[in-house]
Amino acid sequence: KMTQQMRDLQLAQARKPPGPSSPNAAKRLYRNLSGKFRVNYTSFDEGSLVGRGEKEKLRKSYLFQSNAALFEAVELQDLDRVQEMLKHYSPEELDLNTPNSEGLLPLDIAIMTNNAPIARALLQAGAKESPHFVSLESRSLHLSTLVREAEQRVNELMAQVVNEAPNADCSEKEKQLKAWEWRFRLYKRMKAGFEHARVPDAPSNVHLSVASSSSLQVTFWEPLSVNSAVVTKYKVEWSCSPTFSPLLGEAVIDKLKDLHFTIQGLVSGTAYHVRVSAYNMKGWGPPQASTPPFAIPSNWREYDGRAPRRRGQAEALDHLLGQVKTVHQHCICHEPCKNQPQSRKHSVSKSLKHLFHPGSKFLKTLKRGLYLTAIFYKDDNILVTHEDQIPVVEIDDTYSCLLMQDFLWLTKVSCMWDEILWLRQCVTVSQSSCSCILQTRFKMLLAISQMQGLLGIQDLGQVFFEPIKDKQGNILIVTLKEVKTNQTFESVRWVPICKLQTSRKSVSSPEEPTALDTLLISVQDKLAYHQRSSHALSPGLYLGYLKLCSAVDQIRVLVPEQLPNILCHVKIRSNPNISREEWEWLQKMASVEEPVPTETETDRSQNPLFQELQVAIKELMTLVNIPFQEAKDFRLYSQEVLDFGDQVSFLLLLPPSDDVCTAPGQNNPYTPRSGFLTLPLQIFELGEEK
User: Per the record, which residues fall in region Disordered (predicted)?
Assistant: First the structure.
C-alpha cells in the first residue's frame, strides 16, 4: 500500500479525481477540448442557463477538464498542446500548482521524464515542484511506491483477464489493463529519470554590475551542460569576504522568465562578492562566482558630490506660479482697460461676443487667416462635427503670417490647458502696451476657449510640431489627442478616418490644396507621430547623438522618426547606472588628446564600459551615416550623465565644436539616412519633459 504520507495527500485532494486512465482516453479528452480553448465564459447566452449557479458550475467543469487535459498532455509529452493550454488559461484556472491524486504536479512529471522543453514552458508560466518532496529520500520513496502499486495493479488485472471467460466485463478489464500497463511504464521512466539525474552544473555568464549607490545587479545564464535534470530555481549569495564567510545574505529565484536579481540595501563604498548556484530535483549544484569577482555600490554623482539637476525644480515652479496667480487675483488691473485704442477694443469686444454668442459654430471653410483645429482620435476613428468636418475655429482673419515665436508660445500654453481663463485675464491686462504680439496671443487664447467650449473639454492635447500652410494664405495650427475611454463630446461624433477621407469633397486643386485638404491627406502621419512621441525607452544606459541646425528664427534638433521625443540613440546596456569608478574613467578619457576612446589591452580586459562604448559608437555612427574614421574628432560629453528618472540615462556623443550646430547655408557633409526629422528645439524640450 501507499505510504501514510501519500494517503493523507489523497484525502486532501479528494476533490480532484484522477485524469483519464489511458493514453487513448487522454487523446480523446483534449482533442474534444481543442475547440473549447477559446471559450469566453461571459459570452454564453445567460437566457439559456437556469441561473448564475449553473453557469458557474459549467465554467468549473471546463476548468477541471482543462486541468486533467494538461496532466495528460504532459504525460504524453505533447509540447504543442501544453503551450496552447498555457496560452489560453491562467495558472489559477489550470490549478497549475495543485498536486493530483498521485501527489504529482505537471512540472514534476516533466522534469522526471527529462522533458526539458515542456518543463521550461511550465516554469515560464509559474509552475512549481511539489512541496511534498522535502528530500531526495521522500521523492525516491514516493516513486518506488507508485511503480510498485502500478505493477501490482497490472498483475491483478492480468490474472483476471486470463482466468475470466470472454464477455463485456472482460473487455473492460482488458482496457484497464492496457491503461495501467501504460501508467506502469510512465512511472518506471520517471523513477529511472530521477535515479540517473545529477545535480546541475554551475550557472554560466554570471555578471555583476553596480545598479545604484545602494544596490548591485547580478545576471546569469543557465548551466552550459544539458546532461543533468532541468534547473527549477537559482540561489544568489553575497558577502564582504571572498570566502563567503560570513554570508551577508541570500535570495532564491524561482521565477525564471528573466535570469537576473538586484541586491538591495547595501552600503555605498563597500565591496561585495557575489556567487550564484542552480537547483534541480537532485539538489543544489556548485556555485559560480561573478565576473568581476566583486563590485562596490556607487553612483557617478559621488565623484564630486553633485546633486540631481532637477531636484525640487517642479515644486519651485509650482510655487512661483502660485505666487503669480495670487498677485494677479488682488490686482485692480483685472478690470477692462479703458485707455485701449478704439479699433483694438472693438476687435476684443467682437471676439468676446463671438465666443459667448449661442450661434458660435465650427468653421466649414477657410478664408485667408490663422486657424486652430483639434484632432481627437480613438483607434481608427476621429471626431468630426455633425457636418462631417474636422473641428476648426478662427484665431485671426487678418493674420497672414505666423511668427515662429507666437507658435512656440502656443506650444507652451498647451502644458496648461486648464489655465486658459486666467491666462486670458493676464494677457488682457497687458494689452495697454499696444503690442501686436500680445493681441495675437490674446486671440489665440480666445480661440482655445472657444474650442474648449464647443467640445466641452479642457485638454486639447499636444500641438503638432509645425503648422500647415497653403498658398491661399491660410495657416492651420493642429492639436492632437488620443482618447482611450468611451468619452462623450458636445457637437461632434466619431467616424472612421478612411470614410472621412473618401467622403470629403475637396474645393481645391491637387496642385494647390488648401490647408484643410492637406491635413486630411496627412492625418494618419500626424497621428502616427503623436503616438510615437509618447513612447518611452526601455530601462538602460544609452548613447545619444546631439546634432543641431539653425535658421533665422529657430534652432532645430535631429531626432529619429520612430521616437521623436528622444535624441538619435543606441542602447549601451540594460543597467542605467554609471558607477563612480566608471565616471572616473570617463573623466580621464575626456582629458586625453583623443576624444573618443581607443582600444588598449588593459581597457579591453578590465573595463566592460569601454567595450560597451566601442560597440555603441560604431552602431551610432552607422545609424546617422557618419564614417567611423570621423569618430576620432567626436567627443563624449563629460560634464554629467543625463538622467531621465531612475530607469533611463544618457551619455552624449558630440560632433566637433564647429559642427554641433549647422548654420544657414553651411554645408553638412554627412546627411543621415531616411528615418530622421528635425524638430524645433522648444518643441523637442516639451516632448522630452512629457
Answer: 1-25
